[in-house]
Amino acid sequence: MRILGIESSCDETGVALVETAAPAAPPSLPRLLAHALHSQIEMHQAYGGVVPELASRDHIRRVLPLTTRVLKEAACSLKDVDVVAYTRGPGLAGALLVGSGVACALAAALGKPVLGVHHLEGHLLSPFLSADPPQFPFVALLVSGGHTQLMRVDGVGRYELMGESIDDAAGEAFDKSAKLMGLPYPGGPGLAQLAEQGDPAAYKLPRPLLHSSNFDFSFAGLKTAVLTQSQKLGPAVQQEGSTIRADLAASTQAAIVEVLLKKSMAALKHTGLQRLVVAGGVGANRELRRQLNTACAKAGVRVHYPELHLCTDNGAMIAMAAAMRLDAGRQQAEYRYSFDVKPRWPLDSLV
Ligand code: KG4
Ligand code: ZN
After folding, report:
1. pLDDT tens digit string along 7-45?
2. pLDDT tens, 54-96?
3. CB 3.0–4.6 Å: which of 28, 80, 89, 215 could bond 162 by disulfide?
4. How far apart are CA 303 and CA 292, in angstroms?
């Protein structure tokens, strides 16, 4: 069975085609046949953040040409698509409506069923597209631009929320701190790059909720501390090539990474599980990966990540999540003409 996946929840339009094993074949993971992505980052940079209306309009422009590209790359045609999957939420309502509208119209025209996917489930299952896929059960650290969560994952659709951010997400902490340092949106990758030349111990920044007895996170206080520190340090904080700027970037990254690391290790210890999956945009952070790899090796824990290029939003993870839900019998694709989106949608409410 071939599943076309469409992602349009924020500022990336992603389309992909995956193939599941034939029912008679031995069970195996779905296979990615092709995927294509258009990032709107450059367009939003002029405004310092995502402009929802511009995001929706751009998704409209991109989604069909990307679909054509994916089908061509996979040497398939629309007739070969058995199910059309799309991101149903969470995300920007207008942006989600583009993907869901196109997916449902396409499916109706082809006489094929549709399947709405939870964006975070896409991130969560994206490591199954890697060369070293995980096995259930595992602890998942979900670190995207809008969410920071620790989940216990026992199978497809079997998600138990252990803790989450009570205010800003880790990605937001990266992006807002980066903005203070004069870096363009989204600042996470830029801050990480800058941090490589800095001293992570240069400035003492708070590690919110590090020693709390639960698995919740809080990053709003850290952002305020970075702001206060920036004001003390003056214009050098935004100067290209300044040591102060690199040191502040490294200190900020160190604070975020330490909290994510300690909480993940505590969640592993609490559950007794020996496997960690890291997913979402911040999962691309090299320092986070380096520290998690070291700590997990010491604790005898296997750690899995998505391929670097599939850490941030993409269509492959949406097609993959749909395929895995179908394979696991958690959901059936539906024949319908109507569609809806869920801009707010808790992951642990999935079944
Ligand atoms: O998962 P994602 O693409 O979007 C959401 O679903 O929200 O994550 C985007 C987030 C942004 O905050 C971005 O700055 C951050 O991931 N990010 C990084 C890195 N690459 C992306 N943060 C730190 N280091 C990176 N290398
Ligand atoms: Zn995302």
Report:
1. 999 999 999 999 999 888 888 999 999 999 999 999 999
2. 999 999 999 999 999 999 999 999 999 999 999 999 999 999 9
3. 215
4. 8
The domain of 97 spans 2-125+311-349
Residues 119 and 260 in one domain: no
CA–centroid distance, 322 to ligand 1, in Å, is: 23
Contacts of residues 223-227 at CB distance under 8 Å and 24 or more positions apart, as own/partner, are 223/168, 223/172, 223/173, 223/176, 223/177, 226/176, 226/177, 226/180, 226/252, 227/180
Residue 282 CB–ligand 1 contact under 6 Å: yes
Residue among 282, 290, 313 whose CB has most ligand 1 atoms within 8 A, to mutate: 282
Check whether 125 has a pLDDT greater than 90. Answer: yes
Task: Give yes or no for a contact between 177 and 226, defined as CB atoms under 8 angstroms apart.
Answer: yes
- Residues 175, 107 share a domain: no
Same domain, 24 and 119: yes
Same domain, 213 and 343: no
Task: Answer yes or no: do 106 and 155 share one domain.
Answer: no
Ligand 1 mutation target, pool 39, 120, 174, most atoms within 8 A of CB: 174
pLDDT of residue 268 exceeding 90, the answer is yes
Looking at the fold, whether 264 and 327 belong to one and the same domain comes out as: no
CA 248 to centroid of ligand 1, rounded, Å: 19
Q: How many domains, in total, are found in the chain?
A: 2
Q: The whole model's pTM is what?
A: 0.96
Q: What is the CATH number of the domain that holds 269?
A: 3.30.420.40
38 pairs with which residues across the strands?
A: 13
Per-residue pLDDT at 334 exceeds 90 = yes
Any atom of ligand 1 within 6 Å of the Cβ of 190:
no
